[in-house]
Amino acid sequence: MKTLAIIAQKGGSGKTTLAVHMAVCTALHQRKAAVIDLDPQGNAYNWNESRENGRKLDAVRGNATELAALLHQAETAGIDLAIVDTAPHSNSDAAMTAQLADLNRSARHWYTHTDAQAQVLGCSRKQVYESHAL
Predict the structure, then answer these.
(1) Is 42 strand, coil or helix?
(2) Which of 66, 83, 105, 128 gets the highest tally of CB atoms within 10 A of its CB?
(3) Count of domains for the chain
(4) Which domain holds residue 12?
(5) What's the helix, strand, coil split of the chain in %, to 5?
(6) What CATH number should be reported for the domain holding residue 80?
(7) CA–CA separation, 80 and 27 (whole Å)
(8) HSE on the CB side for 41, CA within 13 Å?
């Protein structure tokens, strides 16, 4: 299992949007994705809960102190990619999350490189939008 942490100091930088798009794109490629929502607002988790039955992904809310256990549960469940959506701040929680992740990306860097992101994941923006990611 690989873990991607999406971390940015600023709110509204696209972290949640990026997290859910990455999760849907992973699922489009018949891989199991899990969204771990560490943001107290819980928008990534709530987005998933609003999806129709049969289209929901594995998603859970938590906090940074629970992250190691949540990642272990995801790996045990056969998840291929765990995507961690974080709160907008840079403190010890963000540092702990970054240490537990295989990949760390600022939302600003990835969001401004959407085409490159789609190439890495092997799907297009259109495929993600058509899957009702938003």
Answers:
(1) coil
(2) 83
(3) 1
(4) 2-129
(5) 45, 15, 35
(6) 3.40.50.300
(7) 10
(8) 12
Does residue 69 or residue 89 have the better pLDDT?
A: 69
* Each residue's pLDDT tens digit, 73-130: 999 999 999 999 988 876 777 777 877 877 655 444 444 344 444 544 555 555 544 5
**Number of residues written out for the chain:** 134
Give the span between the Cα atoms of 55 and 5, in whole angstroms: 23
In a domain, 116, yes or no: yes
Report d(CA 24, CA 11) in Å as an integer: 22
Answer yes or no: is 134 within a domain: no
**Dist CA 77 CA 134 (whole Å):** 25
Q: Are 61 and 83 in contact (CB under 8 A)?
A: no
